Predict the structure.
Amino acid sequence: MTQEIEIEYKNLLTKSEFDRLLTSLPFPEEAKSQTNHYFETKDFSLKRHGCALRIREKEGSFTLTLKEPHSTGLLETHDVLTNEQAASWMNGKPIYAEKTARQLDEKGIYVDELVYYGSLTTHRRELAYGDVLLVLDDNTYSSKTDYELELEAASEKAGQTAMQQLLDQYQIEQRETPNKIQRFFAAKFNDGAAEQSD
C-alpha cells in the first residue's frame, strides 16, 4: 500500500507499567526488532510542516515513510527501498523515491536537502485486542531507553475508548506522549532544541 491513514494513540510507560501489561495480557513472549532511521533538513522544514520522515529497517527490508497531518490521524506515504538505496540515504546521499518525493515537493522540500540524524531501535510486541491492535514497545536511542503503549484503531472513537479502558484497568497514568521522532530529537539535542518535543 502506497498511502494509508493511521489512527493511533500512545502512552509512555514506566518499566513497572510495561512489565504489568506484558505479564497481564497475552503478548508474544518474543519481541520483534525494528530500527527507524530519521531524516530532516538542517533548518527542520519537515517539523515546521508537522511532518516526519524515516526509513524503517525490519527483517532485512527497508521502507521510506513520510508522515504528515491529516484530518483523522496521519497520512503515511511509503516507498520500498533496496538495501543499496537505504545505505545511500544513510550515507548522506538520499535517492529520489517517487511517492514520498512527490509529497515533499508539494511542500517545497527537496530530497537533496535531507540529512540523516540517527536511529531508534524498537523491540515490539503486538496483540489483537477486541477491534484494536495493541503495541508494546521498548525503545533505545541516544543511550536512553523508554517504554510505550500504542493502540491502533479503525476510528478515533474506538481508539479513545479502548485506550482509556486499558489505562483505567491497569492503573496507568495518562501521560503526554510525543511521538518517537520527537523524543529522538529531544534526546539528541539534550533539550537544547526543546522545540523538537512540542
In short: The longest helix spans residues 156-169.
